[in-house]
Design a protein that fits this description.
The complex is a heterotetramer of chains A (about 270), B (about 375), C (about 550) and D (about 425). Chain A contains ten helices and ten strands. With about 270 residues, chain A is α/β, with parallel strands linked by helices. By secondary structure, chain C is α+β, with helices and mostly antiparallel strands. Chain C has a five-stranded antiparallel β-sheet with strand order 4-3-2-1-5. Classes of the chains: A alpha/beta (about 270), B mainly alpha (about 375), C alpha+beta (about 550), D alpha/beta (about 425). Chain B: It is a multi-pass membrane protein.
Chain lengths: ~270, ~375, ~550, ~425
Amino acid sequence: MSEAVSPLPDTEAVPVEQRAASQAAADTILYMDGVSVSFDGFKALNNLSLYVVAGELRAIIGPNGAGKTTMMDVITGKTRPDSGQLFFNGSVDLTKLDEAAIANLGIGRKFQKPTVFESQSVLDNLDLALKGNRRVFAGLFARLGKAQLERIDEVLERIALTDFRGQRAGNLSHGQKQWLEIGMLLMQDPELLLVDEPAAGMTDAETEKTAVMLQEIARSHSVVVVEHDMEFIRALDCHVTVLHEGSVLAEGSLDSLQNNRDVIEVYLGR
Amino acid sequence: MLLSNDHGRLLSPLGSRITLGLLLTVAVLVPLLNLAVPPGSFFHVPTYLVSLMGKYLCFALLALSVDLIWGYCGILSLGHGAFFALGGYVMGMHLMRQIGDRGVYGNPDLPDFMVFLDWKELPWYWYGFDSFPFALLMVVLVPGLLALVFGWLAFRSRVTGVYLSIITQAMTFALLLAFFRNDMGFGGNNGLTDFKELLGFNLQADGTRAALFATSAVTLALGYLLCRWIICSKVGRVLIAIRDAESRVRFLGYRVEFYKLFVFVLSAMLAGLAGALYVPQVGIINPSEFSPAQSIEIVIWVAVGGRGYLHGAILGAVLVNYAKTYLTGALPEIWLFFLGGLFIAVTVFLPKGIIGSLSSLRDRLPVAIMRNPFQREVPGE
Amino acid sequence: MPALFKVFRLRLLAALIVLLLPSVALAGLAEDLQALTDKSNAIKAAAVESLAADGHERAVPILQAFLAGRLFEVKEDDRIVIAEDRAAGYRIFDAMTGEALGEVGKRALRKVRINNRLRQAVKAGLGALTLASADPAARRHAADAVFRSAQADMIAPLEAALVRESDPKVAARLGRALAATELATADDKVTRITALKALEAFADPDVRALVSGLLVTDGEGQPAERDADVRAAAAETLKAIEATLAFNGVIASIFQGISLGSVLLLAAIGLAITFGVMGVINMAHGEMVMIGAYTTFAVQEVFRASFPGAFDYSLLVAIPAAFLVTGLVGIGIERGIIRFLYGRPLETLLATWGLSLILQQMVRSIFGPTNREVGNPAWMSGAWEVAGGLTLTYNRLWIILFALMVFALLMALIRFSGYGLQMRAVTQNRPMASSMGIRTGWVDAMTFGLGSGIAGMAGVALSQIDNVSPNLGQGYIIDSFMVVVFGGVGNLWGTLVGALSLGLVNKFLEPYAGAVLGKIIVLVVIILFIQKRPRGLFALRGRAVES
Amino acid sequence: MKSVIRGAIGAAALAVAVTGGTAAQAADDVIKVGVLHSLSGTMAISETTLKDTVLMMVDELNKNGGLLGKRVEAVVVDPASDWPLFAEKARELLEGEEVAAVFGCWTSVSRKSVLPVFEELNGLLFYPVQYEGEESSRNVFYTGAAPNQQAIPAVEYLMSEDGGGAERFVLLGTDYVYPRTTNKILRAFLNDKGISDDDIMENYTPFGHSDWQTIVSDVKGFASQGKKTAVVSTINGDANVPFYKELGNQGIKAEEIPVVAFSVGEEELAGLDTGPLVGHLAAWNYFMSVESDVNDGFIEQWHAFIGNEDRVTNDPMEATYIGFKMWAQAVKQAGSTDVDAVRQAMYGQTVPNLTGGTAVMNANHHLSKPVLIGEIQDDGMIETVWSTDKEVVGDAWSDFIPESAKLTADWTYPWVCGNCEAPKYVTAN
């Protein structure tokens, strides 16, 4: 969708006290306030507010249709919010930027379904993601320097794909593709990583390995993980936000949430 | 040290070496066999074959330009014939100006069709075409500019897939109708014809034809090299990435629209060049080159040869056009059955086209396993 | 015996008179009839006038036969006969007496030639003779013929006819003829000005032609009408008529736009299924339309050969026949080719293009390369004269109706039938549908068959307004794609709205820009529109769209 | 280096394959004639008939002993309504097949496309369709009508008392050279006759135009301005059927607004119910309905050849017939198929028209033919209502276009030129 959707002022959705961007805390890397999105009458996000602090590892859970993926779409510029505020690093208004600009600001994203460039090699995939000049004419004459090659090797090591360097990405196993995508995120070296269901379809061993990988990454980046798998969330051991029907239902540690009545009702009730 | 640009491998796959070798050989051999070998000898190539093969080479260049955007970037243009035709018209305008007062009405300023339709003076957009360098510039600029405007609008609004294909079709259809109009000043349905000479050489002389043929072959070879150079560069890999997963590329921070625009404009320019080489060899340019059916045929050449293989596009163009030449002469009443059948058979039995099927055959051989795992692979080769 | 002689002479004279009286008339008839075969059209025209003026009872059949091209001369004895078509030749009747003369071969007769000038004369003559006909349609035609001829001696018969006329429509036509005749022939100004006023009620092109004829100036700047008052009245009448005509013109444009839109809709709706719903870039769609049109031709051939009397109903048979034939062809194509290509939409483009070449050539081989005649049934010929200058042609009206009916039926089928449910299930989620026990292969084949069958029905409609030739489909394929894409792929309502709006835009542009430029503008508008809404008029918005 | 050698072998193989595929051995006892008519694509609808006509004529010639004691063989190719392909096929016929003459082309653009080829290779083309004139090539014989053999007589007829005395004209045409030129000539002619530009409406539509609602309404409007109006149609090919259908349905009667067409014959009407169109006119040099013994024979021969009694004959077929007969006579007279000898023998060659009288080939490569005007009948035939007293000489250059009025086409000594203001050679006297 590319056309700018005219903001539909939703009287209910607009928060009573409008907080200006400058008032956001300096260490808030992602500031979402009162964001609403609707598709043909269906409210995918309903007055959603969420704040992520720099360096934080945050997990987001919620049942199907809670708006997790739409939230990611909004942050990365794929979907324009109908209303609400969205700031990155305190002052950059994300609602005015497109995907490429947002990516270049330092927000990386991993999709729900592993999306790597299947017809290209693992090496090429990482090379494409490597932080650098994204212009066409630079690309025509670009060369990989020694430092960059070393960086690639380092990431290959981290995602355990060193031996698959020259393989077509399409030939990798499902789990390996997930890692490759995480590796691509690392190559981008973003300030904020949005990771959508990294453990989906993985074996237990792979899941464990992935959790370790993310924790490691979280040491140097802010990470937001969307996940279904409670075991995995537990392994991440971080602050958790529960989404329901497009807004935040509860927040806190996993243990506290597991005793929250609302959360139990949403997951088990009905 | 590995390069991000793989230009060292520009010629490494067998296909490209054969292609270039062939092109350069025919560029020398065919004119030689035409001019130096006496008629009647077994090795003599008659002039009509020179022109015919020259025409095939122009089509091959056109197919190459389509493969560049379709095979490598996933942009299916069903209107590429428009760029070809525009290049052709530019060359046609230059050739018309070269006629001077040798037209049937002997008017030194106006082409015959303008005299005929009562035009009093040369319209402004015909100015400058007497100059060959200017015309040559326009050959790439006019199609390039149209592609720039059209592409900028389309790619910026992220028109993709069939929507893009259909509006490219609308574009060429609109141009077809526009060029049909006699009021446009491009000769209407009859188009531009009755050319006399190019750069002072008589277009009907064997030498000129041979030279045009050689030029076409060399241009095609250069075009091929240019395309390979792009494909082997990082840009090439971004293009393939766009073809395979466009939104992923955006989230990596690439401005997909600029990449698409770059390759689309370049492709349009190559198509324009092909058109410009085509016109002096066939002797006429008229609006039927804009017809959507023509553009669809170009896509079919590429599909038959093998989408995503540059030499496949060349092979497809030559093969399908040769089949057309042969069948319309040998089986004039039923040739469409064969051609139509060929298209269906290729899609059903050789979904990757001829080259694609050949190379997947090659991939199945044990040799493939032995290949150096660290060697970069350009998808499609 | 002078007395006896005298008596004898008297008797002879009486007998002669008795014999001669009708034969004077008969001689006149024979002379006029003979004059009809003259080389000079002027003499022929005079003969027609004289025939009509004499009012002999044979004049009407003779003139009617002359008009219909059924008046012949027997080559052997130059006798003039009226002929009726028979399989082997003609059945002939003596023109003078109506006596049957048996059957002769076509070569034995020489046609009595007629041309436009004579046709006009004959119609005028027949008009005068048939004002009192029992058939209201004939009286109406007669009134119109008199309107055109505008001869002074018709005023009295017109007035008489007007008095006894019971049909109000015919009475109006009589009034129009009377006013026109008075305007043309009356001597006094007042009658003529009154006639002009009366004509204001009949705002049609013929009346406008008549009235503006008064205002035309000749080479020296002299107006055709010498009387300034009549000219002024004529100018006023003309103004009133033109205002009505202009209003009717707008209505006509709307009608024409909807009509063009309905043609586009018919052509596109099948594609909206095969392309829009199934994702097959079906370049052979136009050929399905063409096969539908040829099916119509074949059905009509059967009717012509076996049931000539029921020819008017041939289309009612052709519609289901075309649906079945093209539907089966479509199923065959789907099973034979398309099903191997799902998930590779661009390859379907290639294969169906090859297919379209084959189908065109096949039809060319079977039916020949030239146009085939598809007749219009009587109920689709002619036009409905709603008001002056506003004639809605019946074939277009029926096609609009037909298009909307097809659309409604299709929507109902998809929405309410079990098959429709399965089809929607398969197009939305194939693996899920398959796992629920829906035979997806069957549904695919049926859906492609349905799209093709609808294209075939479109062919029946198009055969009524366009060439039935192997190229028929080529003319519609691009427009069809434009409509589907403009409306939004996968949305049938979009196709409806898209088709009608493109039709209307085209027709409103045409008077200003001309047909070619108008079409170019529409194409450019589509291109620009797609920039604004990259997924057409009725695009789905949401997450599912881009996945 | 190895790859380059491999490439060379491949190239040579390709070249041989291409040559072997198309070059044919010309046997000594055969005279070849090329048939260059589209058998597929948009023009197949019209051109296929002409291909069959040539085949029929060849057949007849062979039955009568051939030509110069040799058998005549027709080489049929399909240029597929693709104009550059016409040039390619022409070259193939002349250079590859070495045909003695070519019968072909329908559209002007196809003729323009092959013209340079015929001139370069000194071939012979017989072009059988009415066209816009403004051309006289040494290598082409034009057996169809020039504008002065169709348009002017037709308009004169419309203005006459018999034709209805039209004073206002609508010129409808397909947007290409033939209608544009014809209408330009007609406008000049009408202005000459005192009809002002206000009384002339010109309208052009694209090829294959199928929606005539607006234009037919416009014609009705234009005709209701108090003057007798006639329509001159140069609408081409496929667009005619929808045009006439609309005309019939909107009730435009021939007595009120007669339409005279130059590209409509029995063939074009074959797809139509002509009941509502009776009286509309066509101007051409031949109608199937013309009664003459030669015509009856021709129609019979055609029906026998094509195996279908319903097929009609038309003007371009007659033009093909005349062209073929003339060529055969010229070959006999020249005693050879040599192009230059045959060309010389062509001038003054006569063939009886199917409609009576004789067609004569003039030194400007155009024929003298009678002009007929016919009215459409309800059986789809066109019946002659008027004809010229004697044959009209086809003009290569129109007298009504100032630039071309001064040009002369005469390929005999001393002119020897298709477009000259003065003879090439000065006569010695």
